[in-house]
Specification:
The protein is α+β, with helices and mostly antiparallel strands. Helix content is 13%, strand content 21%.
Amino acid sequence: MTTTLDRRLAAVLALPLALALAGCANPGDGGDVPASGRAAEPGGPTEPVSSTPEPTPPTASATAAPAPAASSGRRPLSATDLPTLRPPTGPPRHPTDQRKSNVLAGRISHGGAGPCYTLVTDDGQEHALYGPDQGTWPAGTWVRVTVGPPPAGVECGPGRLVGLLRIERVA
């Protein structure tokens, strides 16, 4: 008696599992999925089969072109193309990188304990930096500096005089 009950219970529990697996079957392999629940097959109808015809939506104009069909036979989500950029006609006329005008990078050519230093940037420009209490910076050190307006009445050597607000070593 217990064995019969165990078999019946196993059969009842196996039934939902079998139904779930049948629902996951590929529609093209002859599974028991109704035609209305199947995905559109190539060359087949694109809409589910219905016993009552559905009304067609009104069109804006009789001369309007039909929406282009996607390769799968379905209508695309949008009838308009995405906007694209045209290819450039040449190189940009102005630099496209957004760079702060008060930040310079280069090598200290005349250093020391300050307050005057000389910075040479990659393009060869010399800048005379004036900044009290900025520390000792030996010649040859690569740095990034934040500069401000030049101080009045100060001479710090060759190059364009600027005020030194911040200095940091770069690798």
